[in-house]
Every structure is written in C-alpha cells, then in structure tokens.
Amino acid sequence: MATSIFKKIGDDGEEMTFVDHLEALRWHIVRSLLAVIFLAIFIFIKMDWVFERVIAGPLQNDFISYRLLCQFSHYIRLGDALCMPAINIKLQAIEFSSQFMSSITIAFVGGFIAAFPYIFLELWRFIQPALKPSELKSTRGSIFYVSFFFFMGASFGYFLLAPFTFNFLSNYSLGTTHLLETKPTLNDYLDNLVNIILGCGIAFELPVLAYVLTKIGLITPEFLAASRKYAIVVILVIAAVITPSPDWSSQMLVFVPLFLLYQLSIVVSKRAYKEMIKKDNEEWS
Fold this sequence. Notes:
Blueprint: H1 18-45, H2 47-55, H3 64-75, H4 98-114, H5 116-127, H6 133-138, H7 142-171, H8 186-203, H9 206-215, H10 221-226, H11 228-242, H12 248-284
Helix pairs in contact: 1-4, 1-5, 4-8, 5-7, 7-8, 9-12, 11-12
C-alpha cells in the first residue's frame, strides 16, 4: 500500500492531520456503535423469542441440525449412526441478575453479529481514501467476501459445532455410579456458545487474510504451501481452543473445514500474486 493511512486527503482537498484522522475514526466508531445498539434494542424487545428459538436451539431435541443429521443418516443407510441422543438438561441462573445480564449479553452480541457488514463498511470507509485507484480495483467486493466468510463461519459454529459440543458434554458422565449430574449455568452456556460462534466466524476469515497479506507482500503462495505442515499444528490448536469439548470428533469437525479454508487460501494467494506480477510487468513495460 503505497499511500499511508495517515496521509489521507480530506473533503477540502488538503492532507488530513493526525487529529483529523482521530476525529474521522471517532465518527466511524460512533456510527458502528449506534448500529449495534439499535439492533441490540430490537433483539432485547424480542428477547423471549430469540432465547427460546435461537439461543436455546442447540439444547432442543428437535433442533434442525439434529433432525437433518438423523434424516441424512437414514438416507445413506447408516441407521441411527448420526442421530444424537437427547439433551436432558435445564440451565441454572444462580444469581439474581443472571437472567437480566444474560439478556444484555445476548442483545449486544446478536447486535454485533447482525451489524457486522455495516461495521466493516465503516472500517472500509476510514481506510478507503488512503488507497490508490489501482489498489481500490483489487479490493472490489471486499465487504461482501469478509461478511460472507464471517457469516459462513458463524453459521458453521451455530448449526454444527455447537450441537455436537453441547450434545457430547451434556451426555458425558464421569464414572458409573451416577454420583454426578450436569447442571450448567446460563452464563456458562452463553460463554461457550458465543466463543464457538465468534471463534468460527473469525477463523473462517482465513482466505481473506491470505489475500490481504499477499497483496501487501508479507506472504506468498509458495510460503503458504511450504508452511502447510506447521499450519496443520496451528489449526489443531485453534480447533482445541474454539471447541470447549475435549471430544476429538468435535475438534475434527473444526479442523477439517479450517484446513480446507487453508487450502483455499493458497489458491486465493496464487491469484493475488499473479495479479501483482501482471501489474508490475505492465508498469515496467
């Protein structure tokens, strides 16, 4: 990026000072926060429906992921191999403020997820004036791709990883005497669900990150290909962090798509690298 972000040109045609940049950044942040707050208020108004239909979805025995996996298992003639056992637990609120504070958390996290494209748009508007026309051309569609991969990751975490994780943990028992009973708290459940959804959403941005790093010259497709064996170790660690479940099948459920995304990142990096080489040849000719 030839032009520094701190050398943007203002609307009056003059170069912006550091204080001007801070002022512009402040308004981008304010607009992003207003979008999150507006959506959070809407979610809070519909909190009962959101909690019962969305938040508590992976704990319901008729959750869409359980039904589709079981139907798929029967379709490919595996019987009940992919049918998960019922989850028979009730969440606890052990503090007076637990349910109210959890409602606030649900509202703001939901508002952030719903407003993610707009938040990135505000970030893009702050960075955009510092880019050259040729650089703007290469970043066309960035808002769509960043949002697409984020929502794809969040959906993966909610519809696949969360059901596998909570089903495994709720049905896991220590010993055979039934002295222990799983009684998770509402805060514990929300922490795990938010970590899974946001963790997967961020992790799925890997191809976008590879494209950006290739464009600014920090990595090459050859480097990514040569680092594949190290990437496998890193992805395994990320999978272990994202999944609160120690079950290897849940971790493999995260590892496989992340590894495929790494392979996609190599393809994306090759395309970005070819564009850079072509551009350099045109400038020298």
